[in-house]
Amino acid sequence: MKTLQNFALGALIAGMLLGLAGCSGMSKQDTNTAIGAGVGAVGGAILTGGSTTGTVGGAAVGGIIGHEIDDSE
Hints:
Blueprint: H1 2-20, H2 28-47, H3 52-68
Helix pairs in contact: 1-2, 2-3
Organism: Marinobacterium aestuariivivens
Pfam families: Rick_17kDa_Anti (PF05433)
Protein name: Glycine zipper 2TM domain-containing protein
């Protein structure tokens, strides 16, 4: 079972990296949102042992935080 979780986490990270490759035409805020969601999903999966709820919750929280980050200061 642990092998399956490791594979799923690796697939999630690979999908996130491939998805971010298409961010070239996005605004800075959209990019921050996507990166925050990806990092939050990985963090949620790690903290909850790979549970779906933790992964989705982490993605939601990370996306919100990433959306609110403002680099213009």
